[in-house]
Specification:
The chain has seven helices and 23 strands. The protein is mainly β. The radius of gyration is 24 Å and the shape is globular. Belongs to the peptidase S1C family.
Amino acid sequence: MTRRRCGVWSMLGGAALVLSTIGPAGALPPAPAAAGAGLGPSLALTPVFMVGEEGVLTLAPTLEIVTPAVVNIAVKATVAARPNPLLSDPLFRQFFGVPPGAEGPRERTVVSAGSGVIVDAVRGTILTNHHVVDGAEDITVTLKDRRVLKATLLGSDPGTDIAVLRVKADRLTALHLADSDRAQVGDLTIAIGNPFGLGQTVTTGVISAKGRSGVIPDGYEDFLQTDASINPGNSGGALVNSRGDLVGINTAILSSGGGSVGIGFAIPSNIARAVMEQILKDGTVRRGHLGVSIQTVSPAVAESLGLPRAAGVIIAAVERGSTAEKVGLRTGDVILAVDGRPSETAEVLRRQIGLAQIGDRVRLTVMREGKSFDLQARIGS
């Protein structure tokens, strides 16, 4: 388990996924059929809550369909061994007769565990976290039916903490990727995983907030926050909505002691999809680039520019020969949106451009001297 910021932010190293339940007063409406979005067979679920024996509301029928798509990932890697500080002292070695080169192994093999989600049953494509497979020499995937498969790492992106694996097997189950932009605070969430190595576990909660950042230094973040109980062992696991669609990939928790305190974070499915598509196409992720230095519009700047509120990104500088210069962007311009999606802060704009495909055309909504207009820009590298 990797800790960030004095042990406050904790990446969720571990094995498998988690699911939980908070029952509403009644059953949810049926879900429409889910297309596989070009990723092979996926799930189209009926109401999540169903009436079981003696009138008890239950998630069991839905979980029976969803949970086979969540896998355990075991990773073997070689890491540098921490030397004994006493053995690094020549006087100590001489006193105890320790010959040169006998200080102990310089490397050691470690086995760690995490979770993954099958998103393409035909091709055997699995989404997980970068930090789960970082440095892996051997990756093994265990399905819910206990089949053990060797996995190939197709690509990994530290900036979003997404990695893509592939396995060869039949009779796989895949989850459909939801449109995470449509998720709302208060939506039911189900987390599936293997906390603390206990085995596949289910917890439930709601989406507590959207657009969280500051978890991964220099990362491309737009995390969904959930109170569905997530613990070490859930990295790469599934955050599922009430239809059983994949809305996020669990990645981190806010915790003082390493366990769940009801604040967990998941990478939205739309970001995971964008990264996966680049990896499947090119084997890597190349960041989009406009060529501007930016900062978030402050209340004082908004007032001076006549903006109705402090939202948007002001351009502080434009690089020579960049895409921004070619399309006519200037210092002092305020970018309000990309393809109609608001660019509320510098972090949001950085993510919007950084995750765009190089060569794609985007529509920038710009405010200049009190007037709003659109520019078409081709994403550079």
